[in-house]
Amino acid sequence: MANTLPFPGRHGVNDAGHLTIGGCDALELAATFGTPLYVFDEQLIRDNLRAYRAAIPGSLYAAKAFLTVAMAQLVASEGVGLDVVSGGELATALRAGFPAERIVMHGNNKSPAELAEAVSAGVGRIVVDSHRELLMLDEIARSMQRHPAIHLRITPGIKPDTHTYIQTGQLDSKFGTPIADGQAQQLIIDALNCSSIRLSGLHCHIGSQLFDLAGLEAAMRLMVDLMAETRAATGAALPELNIGGGLGIRYRNQDTPPDIATYAAHLIETITARCAVHDLPVPRLLCEPGRSIVGEAGVTLYTVGTIKDVPGIRTYLAVDGGMTDNPRPALYEAVYEATVASRPAAPATKIVTVAGKCCESGDILIRDVALPEPQPGDILAVFATGAYNYAMASHYNRLPKPAVVFCKDGEAHLIVERETYADLYAKDLPLPRAASVTL
Ligand code: LLP
User: Fold this and answer.
1) Which pTM was predicted?
2) Does the Cβ of 393 fall within 6 Å of ligand 1?
């Protein structure tokens, strides 16, 4: 029977036989910081940022996948830009001292306040999602006497091969302005006519957790065609193209996503070839990956609690977290690999279903995973939990959010403190005296 340490080379096993992450013993991490605990291999995040930057110098990191002050600082230290999607993400980046000119502001329904915050901060680009937003931003910029540079988010009408909830490039999407019916072309012309904004390029993001590059390539060809049509119609050769994010990662051992260099090389080749067809200068490329930078670097540690055997049916193994720290299985039927951190090299002889502690039958983290005879008190490590886990964590059942630790060269740094009960009710106000009812 195979041992339970998946993804050879990603994490380690030390002399004590324990799982290590960034050179830190997982059992020591659990003892020091408590569980549930989000642990990141900091070097792996840095390696991924470097791989993107080497392939596409205009790379941005999509903050929505995982953002804290320390993460923004790490991204800045690697010379990569930041894609933010809300006033909250922007505020976190600015709080971290992230250079505003390397931030790109996204969002399919930015509020006037968020647009003003982005303009006032002096972000490098604002990605305008709709015609309404274009006019709103032009007006806001005029009133602030600023001239922000923008991209236009275009929906190419390509449906990629991934979970429906994370497809974004199809015509039937809430995001962007479709190429269909000439809407995108009209938006470009209108943007060129706005006096307080500068149109510097186009943007497109067709979906997330993509393994098949064909959909991305088709989208890129359509984007270059649109740029060529723009030049023909207006004489303007737009200098930039943001190709979005979306590269998938290995959640399961058998997953085989393309690596960062291969992904980038394919898309650059597609864009270059299509530009040659139109005799168009190759635009400066930007990209904005999230998952493929932080996903595989993250591991969540839990303490095993009750193990319940339903004879002939299944064994439930309950952990001290669940859909609050990882809603992805409930939302997308996402599948994970796991091991027992004290003996990852032991034979995996017991098949269990890992359940969380929330009051829902749907709070299942992993169905049917083979583990080395788990016992209550063991530390369970769930792999590839770096992207969209902490970012989508909730307080359901009033569970405090876990702490977050970066590990590198055997040293662990706490970058988010564990929440306390007091944090949970910090914003609650008592019932006003006048409204209270005496029973
Ligand atoms: N750019 C835009 C405009 C996006 O909407 C996204 C992701 C990205 C970049 C980054 O995509 P990535 O490289 O991470 O695939 N919560 C879902 C994923 C939602 C993705 C939303 N947009 C999940 O847990 O799978």
Assistant:
1) 0.96
2) no
